[in-house]
Amino acid sequence: MSEPGKMWGGRFQGSLDPDFAEWQKSLTVDWQLAFADLEVNRHWSTALHGAGLFTTDELARVHAAIDDLANAWVERGVPADDPDAEDVHSLVERELGKRCGDLAKRIHTGRSRNDQVATDLRLYLRERIFGCLDGIRDLCAALVDKAAAHHDAPIPGYTHLQRAQPITIGHHSLAHAEALGRDRDRFLDAFARLDVCPLGSGALAGTPVAVDRQALAKGLGFHGGPSRNSLDATSARDHVCELAFCCAMTLTNLSRLAEDYIFFASREAAFLRFGDVVSTGSSLMPQKRNPDAMELVRAKAGQAQGHLVALLTTVKGLPMAYNRDLQDDKQSLLPTLVQTETTLRMAALAVRNAEFDLARCAAEAERGYLNATDLADLLVAAGVAFRDAHEQVGAAVNRAVELGVELHELPASERSRLLPQLTGDLRVELAAPAVLARRDGIGGTAPRRVRLEVEAWQKLLIEWDADGGPEEPS
Ligand code: ARG
């Protein structure tokens, strides 16, 4: 007879080294799969009933035990620190045994923990993806609101972190929304690929029990039906790596948003101010007001990237099919998913509580020669070849720097010497609003174009709400 809480003792006389016994447990992580495991038990026992292995009365007693255990865990929480259970599957089996006696021992007929954990994990991941999708939606909504409020507000645009051309705050906000929209697509793609039911694959070779795997997959809400190869189904973890990538990419995109806002909040830029709800002070320097919320948002990509590499490295070179190495997948992916969801929420909070100083942004958009390209374009319109115009404006910028003025402030004498082909009023033609308005084509920063993009995004957010991708598992 095996030790209590052990699912595989029959062949063994001795017991495990106590340190190894402790070290190989996974309950501290996989307890999170407890409710998914209960659902898997519910549907597997139904399938066994369909195959004639449980009477209707027995099945009812098994389901009553599962309901009772689920209620107990909803009330008291799952005992993640249970000292006697090796993993969540043995914990569930033991607890069901207390409620339906020897019937609990029969649920594992024709099943392995290998197809069980693969199914549990897919069920759990589907739930968590919805959390990430909601988080992405929330942050996109915050960015779209920002863009709607500031669709025409000028701010310096940078390349190489050097002032380049003016853009609108709305355009900047929607740039980050675009990246998040692609992250959303990636999560949905990953969802579709993992939405397949491994249950009924046994340990590696399939199950000898005549279960209806189509009905089983349907009952568990897997839209992709049953998996088609038991070796693959029990050992594949590419969907785990793929989701880890979705998280790492999303958090990497968030780190870029965070960095922009942190820079904008610096004294040097002073384009925005974070509200008290997302700012912290210094224990030493009384004047400090630190953008800690966005700094932590910026940090999270590091851990997620590390977890992605850990997962790929764990799977690399594993022989077909299940290997115990795979137990460690959850340790990398589960915290990453939770962190992604939470970080999206924090980023949305920080965006909502960041107030742009519109007057300063507009004033700075007129400084630092951001209109030099437009000056060259004016020369082109006056018949100068672009390469020559570029040279000419370069010289004009040098002179303006010497005089400490902007291009549109060059004194008349300098202007007629350096830019003889131009006759118009440069103060009007080179003002930021004029520079912005010229970039009116698809994808440009002109207020009119940004307004249209805001409207498109508002529609898209409504579509996301109405058709948020796949149906949530019931
Ligand atoms: N706890 C394991 C995991 O998460 C499942 C158990 C499979 N164990 C085994 N020896 N086949 O992967």
Task: Describe this entry's structure for a reader.
By secondary structure, the chain is mainly alpha-helical. Helices cover 61% and strands 4% of the residues. The protein has three domains: 92 residues, Fumarase/aspartase (N-terminal domain) (Fumarase C, Chain B, domain 1, Orthogonal Bundle), CATH 1.10.275; 234 residues, Up-down Bundle (Fumarase C, Chain A, domain 2), CATH 1.20.200.10; 64 residues, Ribonucleotide Reductase Protein R1, domain 1, CATH 1.10.40. It has 20 helices and four strands. The strands form two sheets. Strands 1-2 form a two-stranded antiparallel ribbon. A two-stranded antiparallel ribbon has the order 3-4. α3 packs across α7, α4 packs across α5 and α8 runs antiparallel to α11. It is elongated, with a radius of gyration of 30 Å. The two termini are 39 Å apart. The mean pLDDT is 95. Bound molecules: arginine. The site of arginine has 10 residues, from α7.
State the end-to-end CA separation.
Answer: 39 Å
Number of helices: 20
Give the second-level CATH assignment, the architecture of the largest domain. Answer: Up-down Bundle
Structural class: mainly alpha
Radius of gyration: 30 Å
Query: CATH superfamily assignment of the largest domain?
Result: Fumarase/aspartase (Central domain)
Output the strand order for the largest sheet.
1-2
Describe the biggest sheet?
A: 2 strands, antiparallel
Strand content: under 5%
What is the CATH T-level topology of the largest domain?
A: Fumarase C, Chain A, domain 2
Bound molecules: arginine
Helicity level, as a percent range?
55-70%
Mean pLDDT: 95
Shape: elongated
In CATH, what is the class of the largest domain? Mainly Alpha
